[in-house]
Amino acid sequence: MxxxxxxxxxxxxxWNEDLCLEEEQLKDFLEKxxxxxxxxxxxxxxxxxxxxxxxxxxxxxxxxxVRPCHIARAFDATRLESGCGVTCSRQLTPxxxxxxxxxxxxxxxxxxxxxxxxGQPVALVTLxxxxxxxxxxxxxxxxxxxxxxxxxxxxxxxxxISYNSAWKFICFSQDERLETxxxxxxxxxxVFLNHCKTNHNLAVHEEWTYKTPFGRELEVTGxxxxxxxxxxxxHNHFMVVTGSLEDAVASLSPSS
Length: 256
Description:
InterPro entries: CF161, MIR_dom_sf
GO biological process, one term: cilium assembly
Keywords: Cell projection, Cilium, Flagellum
Pfam families: CFAP161
Structural class: alpha+beta
CATH architecture of the largest domain: Trefoil
CATH topology of the largest domain: Trefoil (Acidic Fibroblast Growth Factor, subunit A)
Organism: Geodia barretti (Barrett's horny sponge)
């Protein structure tokens, strides 16, 4: 049985409908591009906004990584949203996603510039506007609610500043903790950030990484890790930095 063939230039079937569909798709694409609604445009604008240089102050761990938050939603967001996760990055430039304001927690409202003391409950809040003004939040790990890899306490950013958002600074030296209770926390020195409700310290895991819109970043949890000497290990080492973050990190030696 012979099969009738056509020259490639011959249009068969619903060629007119297909052509109209392609034209409509191209028109829709160009209109979205003009309005800045393409995914690549949203991503570019979002990254420019959230990575905009903000201040010269950030919170860093021993190895120079800052504790930022990442967006787990689409790039339609123009600010950090309640419920987004927290990861650790090695990007040292302060921006809306890694700068936190240390403010008082509880009935007594702190005055601007007031000194933060060891053992004093505080809340760590992101910047307003792009930062969303969200509090660093954690709660006890359960069978269904825990960090993805280590299965420890999950750390999130929440709009509601409750007791789950209360933290306190603990002196790095175990021998000096009782005598330093209630004294000012010095800047640019190692400290532990302890969660008031669960009594676990904030921790960073170099062995667990997340793929985020900003690259590979480390998992952040609430868990106290002890070494063979029953002292908190490097996972829990943090410091509050004033001035140049690079200089403060460089000044730390492994034995300090």
